Structures are given as C-alpha cells and as structure tokens.
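Lab meeting, item 3. Inverse folding demo.
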C-alpha cells in the first residue's frame, strides 16, 4: 500500500518523459512516447525487396520481390531488414543512446522491437555480430549502440553475441558525413575479423543501428564471408532513405 502510494507520488512529481519530445507522459501511459510521437513512428512493411529489405511500390504487387538494384548487383549480405523508418521520434531515441549514452532510451527501443515484427528473415542464427566501432570512438562514447541493439533484438534468446568477431582497424570519418560512393571507399579495408573469431560455416546475423546506403553492413558482410561465414543476414533498427 505504502509502496503503491510512493510510486504514485513519484509519478506525479517526476512523470516519465516521452522518449521523443521529452514532454511529461500522462499518468497511466506505459508507452515510451506521447501520442503525437507515437503517431509518427512508421514501421517498415511489405512489399519489401527480398534481399535488401527496401520498401517497394504496392502498385506493382503486394508481394515481396527483388528490387532492381539487387537484380543488377547482388549485395554481399543474404538479406537486410529494418524495424522502423529513421525519422522522429526514432531519430532522437537512437541519438540519445548513441551520443549521450542515455540508457533510459533502451526501454523505448525495446518497446519498439516488441511491437514491430518484420525484421526476422531466418529463424536460427549461430552467431550475432554487432557492427564494430573504432576503439577510440568506443572509449569516447562508452558504448557500442550496435551491441546494445543486438542484446535488445535477441533478449529472450540464448544465441551467442560476439562483439569482438569484427574489429574496426581504421578510424574512418563518420558515414553520415559522406555521400554514397565515398561511403564505400571510406570503409574499404577498415574492418577485419577479430582474432579468434569463429566464423567458419556459421549463419550470422549482423546488427547495426541505421541502414542508409548499406555500405557499412556490406563491408562487414564481405569480411564475414571471406572468413568462412555461411550466411549473413543484416538487421538494423532503422532505415534512412537515400
Ligand atoms: Zn513525444
Ligand atoms: Zn533490393
């Protein structure tokens, strides 16, 4: 009784804040966002490209199919899927985790993972690999957001997550500052298999926060396959257009 009262008083004094716009949430709102932020969350839905996971036009067909880009040039990963579009309030939520090390954003991210369902392509993976950060960048940020997301995506599973399966050996400029072709050039040779990584014959799920051109996950997939991975399926939390 006293505990319940205490919780209510705390709720009134310090109401939980919306994960997107930081306005106080109404009492009884157990969601991570206020109503107007929730209305702006857009999950990725079919029809998708079977390979790269890009949303395709419903006018042509409602079935998942190959997009033109994958027909012309098949990417090095077997599939890529994302949970939501990279726009507000998701942008703020990921930003809080990535640059402010704000672990309270974790509840919001997990809530979205539980609500969205189009990110799983195959049922069983042998190994989950987060996209690595350059060690100095990791030290500065205090966490690798891809590792946090890997744990959230596979929270209820016993599959192994290996944050040292890949390593970033060059501190390349942030991908977000570059255009498409430069993104690919920027990364070439900057990622290697970690010492002692057991990749041979394994079905790997590669995790990152945002899929933009796919350059980062493509480079990681190449390295994983060069080191014997049987398959690489990519899951990113969000997808940016362009
Ligand atoms: Zn809000
Ligand atoms: Zn495609």
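The presenter then showed the designed sequence:
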């Amino acid at each position: 009784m006293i505990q319940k009262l205490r919780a209510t008083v705390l709720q009134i004094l310090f109401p939980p804040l919306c994960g997107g716009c930081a306005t106080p949430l109404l009492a009884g709102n157990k969601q991570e966002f206020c109503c107007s932020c929730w209305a702006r969350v857009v999950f990725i839905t079919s029809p998708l490209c079977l390979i790269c996971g890009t949303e395709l036009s419903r006018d042509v067909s409602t079935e998942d199919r190959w997009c033109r880009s994958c027909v012309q040039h098949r990417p090095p990963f077997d599939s890529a899927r994302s949970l939501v579009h990279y726009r507000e309030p998701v942008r703020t939520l990921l930003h809080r985790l990535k640059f402010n090390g704000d672990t309270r954003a974790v509840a919001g991210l997990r809530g979205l993972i539980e609500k969205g369902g189009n990110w799983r392509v195959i049922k069983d993976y042998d190994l989950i690999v987060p996209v690595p950060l350059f060690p100095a960048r990791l030290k500065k940020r205090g966490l690798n957001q891809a590792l946090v997301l890997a744990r959230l995506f596979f929270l209820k599973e016993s599959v192994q997550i290996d944050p040292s399966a890949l390593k970033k050996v060059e501190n390349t400029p942030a991908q977000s500052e570059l255009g498409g072709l430069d993104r690919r050039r920027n990364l070439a040779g900057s990622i290697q298999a970690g010492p002692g990584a057991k990749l041979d014959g394994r079905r790997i799920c590669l995790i990152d926060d945002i899929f933009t051109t796919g350059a980062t996950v493509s480079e990681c997939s190449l390295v994983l396959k060069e080191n014997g991975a049987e398959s690489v399926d990519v899951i990113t939390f969000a997808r940016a257009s362009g």
